[in-house]
Design brief:
Number of strands: 5
CATH superfamily of the largest domain: 5' to 3' exonuclease, C-terminal subdomain
Helix content: 40-55%
Order of helices and strands: EEEHEEHHHHHHHH
Distance between the termini: 45 Å
Structural class: alpha+beta
Largest sheet: 5 strands, mixed, barrel
Shape: elongated
Radius of gyration: 19 Å
CATH topology of the largest domain: DNA polymerase, domain 1
CATH class of the largest domain: Mainly Alpha
CATH architecture of the largest domain: Orthogonal Bundle
Length: about 210
């Protein structure tokens, strides 16, 4: 279908952008976070799009990055999540925050999105965790970086304990996992030492 829309931003209303492409106005539905980052009216804009086709409609959903589009496509594979639900989640969570919430099983953060209930949020974490892990591994493959799933045994235990300790100290699970992963990427020797990993992760939180 339509991979992207590249033109001049004609208008921007709540959840809807009109992009002038060669004299044709294209209606593109966007998330709240995308709206906040859009250029001014009359300026050039490129939106990566998902085309939703039904018997009585042909709808475009647009994103400023391929990363957001990829996550949107993942979200709508989950039972009970339609395009509007996907936009709702990406309106309140950045792609990184959503990934970390899914990896941590933090359904509470996801359920804060309008129209997303607790059970639906739990379904998202259960159904997408392996997909997120596989995607992350592909992105970092060959980079030499340590991913959360490269770890096993003592290292995996140290990672989990460090994240749990940060959460117990009041940090949200997404930020905790982000800090621990950053430490592991830069300090492989900390991978199996919970205390060292926790101290370094705490420094990342400040």
């Amino acid at each position: 279908m339509i991979a992207y829309v590249n033109g001049i931003l004609e208008s921007l209303e709540e959840g809807l952008a009109v992009v002038d492409v060669g004299g044709i106005g294209m209606n593109v539905f966007v998330s709240g976070s995308t709206m906040d980052r859009m250029p001014g009216i009359g300026e050039a804009v490129k939106l990566y799009t998902y085309t939703n086709v039904k018997e009585d409609s042909f709808t475009l959903f647009g994103f400023l990055s391929r990363d957001e589009l990829a996550l949107f496509k993942m979200l709508i594979t989950v039972s009970g999540i339609g395009p509007k639900g996907g936009l709702s989640i990406l309106s309140v969570m950045t792609p990184d925050d959503l990934r970390f919430a899914i990896m941590a099983g933090d359904s509470g953060s996801i359920s804060k999105a309008p129209g997303i209930g607790k059970k639906t949020a739990e379904r998202i974490t259960l159904e997408l965790r392996d997909k997120i892990k596989a995607t992350e591994a592909d992105m970092l493959k060959g980079s030499g970086a340590v991913t959360m799933d490269d770890l096993s045994g003592e290292a995996s235990s140290a990672r989990d304990e460090a994240v749990a300790a940060l959460v117990a100290l009041g940090y949200n699970s997404g930020d905790a996992m982000k800090a621990v992963r950053k430490v592991l990427t830069a300090n492989e020797d900390a991978a199996s030492d919970t205390e060292k990993l926790l101290k370094l992760a705490l420094k990342e939180m400040f």
